[in-house]
Amino acid sequence: MSTPTDAVSIKLPKLVTTLKPKQPQDGDKVVFNRYSEQAGELPLFLVDVKYEDQASVATEWKHDGQEGEGKGTMIKKFVDAGEGDFSGTAVTQAKFTALLAKEGKELLFYLHGMGQQTKQMVEATDSLQTEFDSKEPEKVLVVPVDWACDDGGSLLGSVLENVPGSVAALAETGLRSQP
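Given the sequence above, the corresponding structure tokens read:
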């Protein structure tokens, strides 16, 4: 686990997204950014996720801002504005779930908050993963769902119902899905 004095970065996670690629896909490579629209189709399952062609993002320790300037929890934040391109390799849902199962951990699907961009979703995913790892390393894997806010909820069910362990992980953490 990183501490505020370490050189810090965030390794980008495998993720599920409902965002439309910026341009036609180049084979299995998908490129999107904070301005990408909702795909309107089934979600994309991405591995080998990168930001500006890098597997990790330079970050710095900052207060989360929840309790006023200079107070609150220290979390890792992108050094840049996060407006660059994210990319990943699209795989089938079956391959994605097999890769997650291979991790041998309980899964927690993190659905980002309303109005949160991909940058904030990655930061929050890292913060959650760090918190879980500080309590019991190697037990839980946080998998972000970059869900376009205008989806209406139809895709979430199809993702969660087909991933072994996801419902158990949600129940054990006390999280419940919201309508």
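The CA atoms of residues 20 and 37 lie 5 Å apart. Try to locate this feature in the token string yourself.
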